[in-house]
Amino acid sequence: MKKLKIYCTSIKHLNILDKLPHYIKPLGLGSNKFPHNWSVETHGENISILNKFYGELSGFYWMWKNGIKDLKKNDLIGFCHYRKLWLNDIFLKKQKYSTQSLYSNLLDAKNTILEKNEVIQIQPIYVKKRNLFEEFYDVHKNDSLKQSVNFLDKKYRIKFQEHLEGNELFGLNMFISSKYIFEEYCNILFPWMESCNKYCKDNNLLEGYNVRLPAFLAERFTSFWFNQYKNKACLSYAKLGKLFLSNNVNKIINPIKIPFTFRMYPTTHRYLEY
């Protein structure tokens, strides 16, 4: 059976992350202090200084350099965010009438989808009346995504271009993959991100909402990279609200384990409209 290790990234300590299933490990990003039981990106080889621009991708770098030595080639490594957690199935609409807890619907390490596939992506969203280039420009008001294609090796440039000319996006920089695929991804991703970051700095693009522009660019690359593999599947995710992230609430109860919580979570936006 494949070993599964999922890291849940966060820039601050949240008690709820200590209450997740054992195979989900909290990973602290940035310069804040974290408990001793957390993995922290500043321990070991890291690019934490770039977290402001790279977001969760600085955590990916830490894992690549420090956290996969105990995994075999086909073992699984994955990532989620403190507000967004993997679910055990595909859900096409909001669970309005479920009496179940969210916890009971989180990804089970014994889910057969993990044994059958080497890549798991987030359920895609589809941009209406736009391709991914146009959607990115509408949101970020610059052409950095088009420029980023040129920073890739010719081997991948055409395929990445074709992906961005479509309207299917596997977002959030969330994925689960075999170790060897993750290593290939990182070997291509981080030199490319260095070029993207330099372009953004040289053109004064890293301001306001766009301070994390390299991470937004990487989201499109992540969507492309893992979508290349034929032996793959998709799962939904749950988005946590403020009540469930509250450290005060989590000192008293585990809010994701109480009944009726699952019905509160839409899992994906099927379409982006303009």
Essential attributes:
alpha/beta; seven-stranded mixed β-sheet; 35% helix; 274 residues; globular; three-stranded mixed β-sheet; 10 helices
Tally of strands: 12
Approximate helicity band = 25-40%
Shape category: globular
- Contiguous low-pLDDT stretches (5 residues minimum) are none
Order of helices and strands: EEEHHEEHEEHHHEEHHEEHHE
Q: Look at the structure and give the mean pLDDT.
A: 95
> Oligomerization state of this entry?
single chain
Query: How are the strands of the biggest sheet laid out side by side?
Result: 3-2-1-4-9-6-10
**SS class:** alpha/beta
Report on the biggest sheet.
Answer: 7 strands, mixed
Rounded to the nearest angstrom, the distance between the terminal CA atoms is 45 Å
Strand residues, percent: 15-25%
Q: Number of helical segments?
A: 10
- Please give the radius of gyration in angstroms: 18 Å
Walkthrough of the structure:
- The chain is of the alpha/beta class and 274 residues long.
- The protein has a domain at 83-272.
- It contains ten helices and twelve strands.
- It has helices at residues 51-54, 57-67, 112-116, 132-140, 144-149, 154-164, 179-202, 213-227, 242-245, 247-252; strands at residues 4-10, 24-28, 39-40, 76-81, 84-86, 119-122, 125-127, 168-169, 175-178, 232-235, 237-239, 271-272.
- Helix 7 runs antiparallel to helix 8 (213-227).
- The protein is globular, with a radius of gyration of 18 Å.
- 37% of the residues are buried.
- The mean pLDDT is 95.
